[in-house]
Design goal:
Strands 1-6-5-2-4 form a 5-stranded parallel β-sheet. A two-stranded antiparallel sheet has the order 3-7. The protein contains 8 helices and 7 strands, in the order βαβαβββααβαβααα. Helix content is 48%, strand content 12%.
């Protein structure tokens, strides 16, 4: 079960006619930029009856369209009315010249900050292991394990910071 995709231009027309735009990205991503008039409904909070009272068409979007497309079945269950996935997400919306609200002070999402911190720890551990003492390889190992556990299970100290 999936949802049909809709272009940014067609989505804008539907929004002007009263459709609802749902941003399924996490809070940190949305804080850096969002489409004016969109409502925040993080994917992790959407359940089987989240939009049962909505009768107007619903358009779901994420950053690139990947999350909405991957979770289209789940989103369809939550929206028993006419519903669509914004093709290309907010990135395609911007490329179409449509408005977004941006907060340049929050350009890097928590997930990206986590990747930078984890990558830095791994690189530092390897370099210190090469040039100072092999014991520093443990730093790289622990950072890598933290990233792996956080990514696979959504669990661990590093995942909680994202």
């Amino acid at each position: 079960m999936s949802l049909p995709t809709i272009t940014p231009a067609d989505a804008k027309r539907l929004l002007d006619q009263g459709a609802t735009l749902i941003d399924i990205r996490e809070t940190g991503e949305r804080a850096s930029e969002y489409i004016p008039g969109s409502q925040h409904g993080p994917l992790r909070q959407i359940d089987g009856n989240a939009f049962e009272d909505v009768s107007a068409p619903i358009i779901f979007h994420c950053r690139s369209g990947m999350r909405t497309t991957t979770n289209a079945g789940r989103l369809k269950e939550a929206a028993p009315c006419e519903a669509y996935v914004l093709s290309g997400g907010i990135e395609a919306w911007k490329k179409a010249g449509l408005p977004v609200v941006s907060d340049n002070s929050r350009r890097m999402s928590p997930g990206r900050r986590l990747m930078v911190a984890g990558g830095t720890a791994v690189l530092l551990g390897v370099l210190l292991g090469i040039f100072i003492a092999p014991t520093f390889y443990l730093l790289a190992g622990f950072a890598g394990a933290g990233l792996l556990l956080g990514g696979v299970f959504g669990w661990g100290g590093m995942a909680k910071s994202a």
